[in-house]
Amino acid sequence: MKVKVISRSVDDFTRERSQDLQRVFRNYDPSLRTQEKAVEYVRALNAVKLDKIFARPFIGAMDGHIDGVSCMAKNPTQLKWIFSGAMDGDIRLWDIASRRTVCQFPGHQGAIRGLTVSTDGRMLVSCGTDCTVRLWNASADNLMELSNSTKNSVEPASVHVGKNAYLAVDHQWDSELFATAGAQVDIWNHNRSEPINSFQWGSDSVISVRFNPGEPNLLATSANDRSIMLYDLRMVSPVRKMIMMTKTNSIAWNPMEPINFTAANEDGNCYSYDARKLDEAKCVHRDHVSAVMDIDYSPTGREFVTGSYDRTVRLFYYNSGHSREIYHTKRMQRVFCVKFSGDGSYVISGSDDTNLRLWKAKASEQLGVVLPRERKKHEYHAAIKKRYMHLPEVKRIERHRHLPKPIYKAAALMRAMSDAKKRKEERRKAHSAPGSVTTQPLRRRRIIKEVE
Amino acid sequence: MPETKRKHRDETNHRRGHSKPNKNARKKKKTGPRLPSSLQKELDRLNPTTSIEIDQDIDSADGDAAERELLPQDFYEYEEQHAEEESKKNKRYDPGSVDQLQYDLPIERSDESEDEIIQSDDDNVDDDDDGMERTGDAADGDSSEEGDGRHTRMLQGITGMPSEAFEGKKKRKMKDDVIPELYPESEYNPSRDVVDGDGQISIDDLLNPLQDNPGFGKLRKRIQQIENNSKAIHAPLRTADQAKVERKAAYEISKKEVTKWQQIIQRNREAPTLLFDENIDLGFSTVGAIASEFEPRTEFERKMAALVSDDKVMEAYKKDAYDAWQVSVEEEKDRQSRIAKMRSLLFRHEMKAKRIKKIKSKTYHRLLKKDRLKTEYSNIQMDPEAAKEFVMKQERLRAEERMTLRHKNQNLWAKRILTRGLNSQDEGTRAAIADQLQRHAELTRKMHSMKDSSSSSDDSSDGDDEDAGSDQEMGSKVVGKAIEKTMKVIQDDHETPKSGLLSLPFMRRGLEKSKKAAVEEANLALQEYKDSKKKLENSVGSEGPEATSISGRRVFGASKTQISDAGDKVKSDYNYGSSDSEDDLRASKNGNIETQGSNVLQKDVNTDAVLIQEDTDNHQESVFKDFNEIVKNPGPKTTYEVSLFVSDTWKKARNRDEKGTNVKKSAMPSGPVRQDIKDTEKEVEEDSDTDSEGQMVDGILTSGSKLSYELPSQEELIRQAFAGDDVEDEFEKDKMEILNVENPEPEKPVLLPGWGQWTHVQKKKGLPSWMLKEHENARKKREEAIKKRKDAQLKNVIISEKLDKKAEKLHTKALPFPFTSKEAFEQSMRVPIGPESNPATAIGPLNRPEVVKRPGVIIKPIQFEEVNPHEKAEQRRGDKHRSKKNKGSGGRSMKKTTA
Lengths: 452, 899
Known about the structure:
Strand content of chain B: under 5%
Largest sheet of chain A: 5 strands, antiparallel
Mean pLDDT of chain B: 65
Largest sheet of chain B: 2 strands, parallel
Radius of gyration of chain B: 65 Å
Number of strands of chain B: 2
Strand content of chain A: 35-45%
Distance between the termini of chain A: 92 Å
Region (Disordered) (chain A): 419-452
Largest interface: A-B, 59 and 64 residues
Structural class of chain A: alpha+beta
Strand order of the largest sheet of chain A: 14-15-16-17-29
Helix content of chain A: 10-25%
Main location (chain A): nucleus
Domain Sof1-like protein (chain A): 361-447
Shape of chain A: globular
Distance between the termini of chain B: 58 Å
Low-confidence stretches of chain B: 1-5, 10-33, 50-81, 94-146, 169-175, 448-470, 541-706, 872-899
Strand order of the largest sheet of chain B: 1-2
Structural class of chain B: mainly alpha
Oligomer: heterodimer
Shape of chain B: flat
Family (chain A): Belongs to the WD repeat DCAF13/WDSOF1 family.
Protein name (chain A): DDB1- and CUL4-associated factor 13
Number of strands of chain A: 29
Low-confidence stretches of chain A: none
């Protein structure tokens, strides 16, 4: 009789440690597993359900301000520190890990409207309605010393007094320049007491300014006259202006795609633009039911977070028309500022109720150390979820979110209104000569004109 | 609007005030007279050397209101206005002038840039003004042939400037004249030069005094040169326009600058994964790395290190270790081979046992047992010791059996079966019971044999302890009994009830009828019995040996087992017989088993046939005999028998037919016309059916009357086949049923007694109106739904519109967004990605998320890196390769750093 022996090398099968897994050989012939697709579907369903079960996005609130939080700034070198400015002129540095104030920066007489940190993390710039720009030494060593001592407050390194109130400030990436916005856009150097450059185009005040992190010489501003303006520091001039139907409250450049930026608009939508083609938005991100107050991109450039006057925080993909996530709590009031953390896994929101809130960017993500096998499992779940995302059952569970009643109702109302408008438009089109009535796509509808 | 205008005016005035000091120096370059080109040409012709100071704001009429106010004071104005107007009017309708206008337009345009410097913001208004003036100017161009004086007057009228402005030579003369200023000099009051016409000092004016002085020749030459080479330089744009142009250019440049990112962005967007976790230095990753950095510091540590790193100690340790484990190669090999042998033996044994244990075949085990017994038996025969032992064992078993009577239907199972009745049991149970009893018989045989010898057998009515007797005897006995019983029945039947229900006349008649039939039957049966009895008696002699061989068998009261026995016998005895005959016999046997009527005679006949077949000599004859007998007996069973026989032939015929159809099929044209094939198949089937019928008929005919049968026509056959069933009606019923299921009929409104009723008053009203309305609505809805169905118009078709809810869950309503075709979408879900169906090496890439980042690692914004678009594919491949090796690399332009 012939004996067939399976030959296996010992090296392959010896475990190094007793905890190691035994090697398993499988026959991967698909004909042996005809039900695999069905199995994976069920797994996807379960994964989605598990996601729902584990969705606990709220980590904690940071309490300490005595007025609404108006602006925040993250330290580009320090993951766990975040600066926040309040309407009463209080600036605080928070340790996110312990959710405590590290130190305060007293000095401003009016509301803080802008905060930013230099790329090396050494300089904190603040500006406010008291017409001053203050620079603070915010280097890690200095602050660590402070936090250890009992003093707990910092003196400004320098104070520049301007003529008008400042409404926003942003720092250029990897340089000593920063820009303030107010009656005009001023470009400052750390070492000068006067702005090295000022731009004015139009007479209305500029309410937000944001440097392009990928292309540091470009900056975008939005003004009260409903315009979005682009500036190029190399040309020493404003470059282009675009006027929309409603005001843009904030702008964020995509850090991974320097040609694209997203504007948070007063009408509750966010508009993603290509800086080269301002006559139409690349994508309109809808879902907020009230003005979007602030926007910040994830450092991965694949998603962004928005804070709205409707008391919610939403997360969007950079290319999707609707939000993928909504965060709200009963106690959170109007959200004035939002920030993504430096590693793209947390979101911080500052709201009218004087609190900063820390959220997970992925609601059901597992915090802490994730072992390789766990990670693989998560990845597998995410992959099958993505694969079966379009099937009705999975989709339904995945998309379901509990909404506060006012938002639910407002959304329904808005939907009804837009439907009615659409209906009317359709009828008008149907009853007029072909070609005489044209409908603009939403991407273009809200843009009035582009000014050279 | 007025505000902006005012502002602008202020601005222009302001600017003018500023530019005044420079005016003289830059007169030639910048501030020419702001007249339309035609006018200017005219003036040049008249007065080539002098540069004329003309009022600056011609176009912006508002701006120079003050100047206009001044004009009426000029005494020329009033007198000449009328004539000038006339001339203008005349010229306006001159076709030539219109031509001129059209022709001149481009030139004016080119000059317009000069005018625009001081234009106000509201260009439109000014443009209109310009147009108006241009027409006038064109008219002037024509009138240039007329006298100078008139021309200047006209000019004055149009431009509102003093006539001196247009009279160069006169001016010169009047230069020395002193004109007293009535107003203080300011921007609102035109200065003396404005009133005067020429207050500007030209270079010539400055140079003239030097004309005669020596030493300025060089300067003069230079001036000459400049004058000769002088070109008109465009005046700069308005600042707003300039800024606009600048912005436009800047935008173009920055656009271009930004476009360099396009490639990188595209690549990153197309990449299946973005990796943000490369180039992270997290310090030591392994224990070994940490240990390698260890440096002894304390005394003790240093001592230890010295010992550990001592060469001698190390060598000795290594040598020791080597000696301790030293084994010769041969020994090791020997040991290994030994162990391997043992293992293989054990393994084989184990496997064999396992295999044997797994075999389920009863025959195999029976054979195995038989084998074992055989060997045992041979052992017994060879070895007296073993024989003794065997005998002892048998004896013991017998004793035990006698004591316990274990196999005499004593256990619960057997009892239960017996109480239920053996006849109602199935074949297997019966066989099992028989087996048990046989066992018992075997074990207690000795005693029985003694009994037999001592006393004749008991009555064989007790089936359990059946004594040996030949089948033939049994058969004759049974037949005898049957005869007795039938006789009895015939006699008994004569008794009729005299009273009760059965005594009624019609009942009596019916009974009589049935009785008659029964008697007839009984008579027939009697005859049969007699025949069979005769045959049995005949066959006893010839079947002597065979019968004795069978005699060892026990038979139970039920006749069925006997049949099966017979069948078994046939099977075992005629293994070598021709397969055909065996088939036939088996068929007959089956037929017998199926005949539950337990027709004893028939059985006997059958067994008879079997027995006869054993004799090869009169084999055929007996079969025929059998047939004859069957034909003689017109009972239903016999025909069945025949049909069985015949059916075999029919089968064969059918086989042949099928072959034929196969041939037909192959001969058919290969074009895949399914309908055709179906049709032909149907036809073939029908053909074969009719054929078989015919043959069946033939088979019957062989045993009956062949000639009297007539083949019915096709139509008749179909009519007969579908007689009584209305297919169309049924179909309609089916359709209605399906409709009702898919669009259920609304329930009729029912008023629950006591609900919604207060008094008898409401009762009169009947059902509430809303109920009726609802019902009506539901009914209408249903009707509409039915009308909308796809099969509403198709009378003979049912198209089900029922949705499979379970399957619906697995389908999307529309094609999801990124996919362009259904196939692509389905393809995306086709291959499973789980760890059960993919090797570990493939799972990683299959399940990798879109963004791979590490928590706690700060991601910095993108930094520019040159991308060669032509190397795309290669890079991709490289990407893949790298990602296979280690997923720590990928999107190259991403810059990552540690936190």
